[in-house]
Each structure stands twice: as C-alpha cells, then as structure tokens.
Amino acid sequence: MPMEPISLAFYATVCGVLSVVAPRLGGFIPRLLIGAIVGVIAAVFLPFLRGLVTGY
After folding, report:
1. Domain boundaries in the chain?
2. CA-CA distance, 21 to 34, in Å (whole number)?
3. Euclidean distance between CA atoms 53 and 17, whole angstroms
4. Segment 32-36 mean pLDDT
5. Which of 52, 50, 51, 55 is nearest to 6 (CA)?
6. Do 48 and 55 touch, CB atoms closer than 8 A?
7. Distance between CA 41 and CA 37 in Å, rounded?
8. At 1, is the pLDDT very low, low, confident or very high (cuts 50, 70, 90)?
9. Which pick of 12, 26, 28, 52 has the fewest CB atoms within 10 Å?
10. How many CB atoms lie within 10 A of CB 49?
11. CA 15 to chain centre
12. Cα dihedral angle (31, 33, 37, 40), rounded to 10 degrees?
C-alpha cells in the first residue's frame, strides 16, 4: 500500500532537511539521538499538519 501524498511529502521534507544539517551535528551518537528526536516530533506534528491541509 503506497503512502498518502501528505505523509510522503512531510517525511521527505523532514528527512531532506535533516540530511543537509546532519554532518554538522557531530558524531554517530549525537546524529542518532537528534534523528530520533526529530522523528518523534515529526510523527507527533503530522496529524496536526494533516488536519490543517485536509480540513479535518
């Protein structure tokens, strides 16, 4: 089952931005922790964003 377009665009944007700044974040552990934190924030924020876009 393919991802819906809003989720796909949202996570593509989050991952793209994170990949641009990742080299400046330090070694493996700091990048891993920041990536996990950004992922959790993105997952929490997506339903709110979807509601704004779709009107639900």
Report:
1. 25-55
2. 11
3. 21
4. 90
5. 50
6. no
7. 6
8. low
9. 28
10. 14
11. 5
12. 110
